[in-house]
Amino acid sequence: MLANILKGALIAGGLGLVFGAGLALFSLKFRVEEDPKLEHILALLPGANCGACGFPGCRQLSEAIVNGEAVPTKCTVGGAKIAGEISQIMGIKAQVILPRTARMKCQGDKENAVVRAKYEGIYSCKAASQISGGFKQCIYSCLGLGDCELACPFEAITMVETGLPFINEEKCTSCGLCVSSCPRNVITLIDKEKRTVITCASVQRGPDVRKACKVGCIKCGVCVKNCPKGAIHLDPILGNLAIIDYNLCDNCGTCVEKCPTHTIVQYMEVTESTCVS
Hints:
two-stranded antiparallel sheet; globular; alpha+beta; 11% strand; 8 strands
């Protein structure tokens, strides 16, 4: 009996050694050599694995860059410096990247926006927006329940007492996760040097905007008439909402002074992106 057990164990062990050796030889013969650039690029990336680049993590992005499926500038978190170093590793010309930041397109806080109903559901902007268009009179306004704050992996967004997000420009990496998390599309990414922003996303008629918010765009066209660079136009597709062409805007501030509803603001302090003049 014991002899049979030992014999079986020896046979099983022998087969294990044979198969193990075979697998080792197979892996050596058919292994794919990893491009050394991959590890160099992976070491440069921030390792946040935030997914803002469209890939599950930094390793997948590194592989895509090495395989020519993604550009070195794909990681916004790394910024221009990292993109330049990756371009050097790949042997291609580095693209010029202007630093960007998230900015609010809404001033509909507790004081300015009209609340039409009391909301007692799930504490989420996405959930609230699905119930009769939200609890605010303006169906395009920020609901202030913090989906953007939860989505930001860099702690660049904080909900403040006014009921709106505070965006810390120094911490913002322009990853865009807050933009995609907002069901109202009131957060946008803009070059940091472009500091003039129209803080309204409503496509409603002027009279309807006035009923819903103190600082909404009423489509009066005063900004269009007074802009010395011709950088603002009323977009008919968006209900004549005022839009800034940032290729022409030079931050002169004329539109900010002339706007009768104070919808257009100019961000001045990089550490306080909600501070406007």
